[in-house]
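Q: Got a minute? One more chain.
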Amino acid sequence: MINKFDQVILKEKRYGVVLVAILIVLVLIIVYMTNGTKESYLHLIYLPIILAAHLWGANKALIVAAISGVLLGFIPLDVAAGIKQNTMNWIHRTILLMIIGYLTGRLFEKVHQLNICLKDKEFVSEITGLYNTKKLFYDLNDMLNCGDIFTIISLKLINIEGIGKYVDYNLVQKLIKQLIEDIKYEFDDIYMYSSSDDELILILPDGCRYFDTISSLVNNYSTAVNIDGFQVRMPLKVGIYNYAGRYETPIEIYNKARIASEQGEANEAGIYYYDITIDKQRKEMFEIAGSLHNALVNKEFYLVYQPKINVITNEITGVEVLLRWDRGERKPVGPGVFIDVAEKIGFIKEISKYVIENAINQIKEWEKENIIVSCAINLTAHELIDRKLMEWTHNIIDSTNIDRSRIELEITERVINKESEKINKRLEYLRKLGYKISIDDFGTGYNSLMMIGTIPYDILKIDKFFIDKMEHIEDRELIRKVIDYSHVLNKKVVAEGVETEEQVNYLKEFGCDELQGYYFSKPLLPDEFVKFYKDFYKTKEQK
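A: Always. Here it is, folded:
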């Protein structure tokens, strides 16, 4: 494949013939017009010879020097006096020019060879011996210019870093070498590149039947293989993009194959095709990640509060604090999305501080209007075990003289599953400090019933997923049993996502302690909650 750089060189060589010829003619004219070869202008003949040496090397520079020397022999030594050159003089000069041309050509050849070596080194991965992404982009650009249609494949070597770090680094090179040999054996017409230590890029021509072969490779490397006495497993994640001739840049084509490989479980083998929906989601995630800091600085975040109703006493006992993001004219993003992004980029602590501080201050403000409610705040696993954050939280709460028992720290069941022992110890410690612990989204994790008796908590929140299914007797009985079992353990039960009167009646019948959902109220802004609170008790008094 001839890349753009090589095409430029070929063009230079073609134009070089004309340029060298013109230079020779010009030098001959100048020498003649300046009264012959006795003047110093004669030495201008080195210019076309050196140019020829640069363009074509020693042999052709030798020919150009010979031609130049012979042509100079026809010019008189002294044009005005009509004195011709001595024959041996111009023969010796021609031989000297040929020697200079040849040696200069050899020198340029050496320099050119050195440049090629440096260029190859620049384009080749030291670990795999394959061309790198720099060469990939050159080749992709040439393919696009030629109108080629092709398939580009990103092949991620999932476990390769761990093998090099914990087993034997030499195995890494052997595994990669074996994989490269397997690929070359299966495909005759293929371009292969190494974008990093753990990723190979393949380019296959249009019409190549590759899927069965790639599937076979994925299956083979997903099972443990024996190399030098070590049993190692190197799953392959494959991302495929079929380029069909649309206007795209090399980097866009390359990235689409890589985006495809990011689908599925992070450390599991699989074959995935590029999906524009996934691409848009990833771009949105990066846009969100880049906007979070400014959102906090520009006060785009705000809190809403959803009331919790004690159905036994018919009282508003508390609120759940929910975070919202006012993105103006930009696409709205739910908290489930931007909180997840914040966790991944390490920005969740700043957001949590905003939520905790503003929620605590709001509770204190409501006290001035004789509104005394508990406040449920959601926390992640990282926040729970972050000693500095929890100490900061204690100080904020204590500075407002709010009883810690009015603060519910909500954690999801899935969080506990990840680091149960460490989380359980922290929960027990927080309970001793006076906080209430509630388990959010109960039933959506694993081993829910098995864990319910081992987690240190005070309040169990049944997820909306189960509340929505209460029309089925099996689900109703499951909810009844969970409520009964929780009461045996002396725990309070809150049902989330209550939306119908039928659900309210069932939950009252089952003895559920508190209900929360749109049946009673949507999440409210602070002033809206004050109005809801006062209207609620005004209606209660009228009854």
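A: Residues 133-274 form a domain with the Alpha-Beta Plaits fold (CATH 3.30.70.270).
Q: Perfect, thanks.
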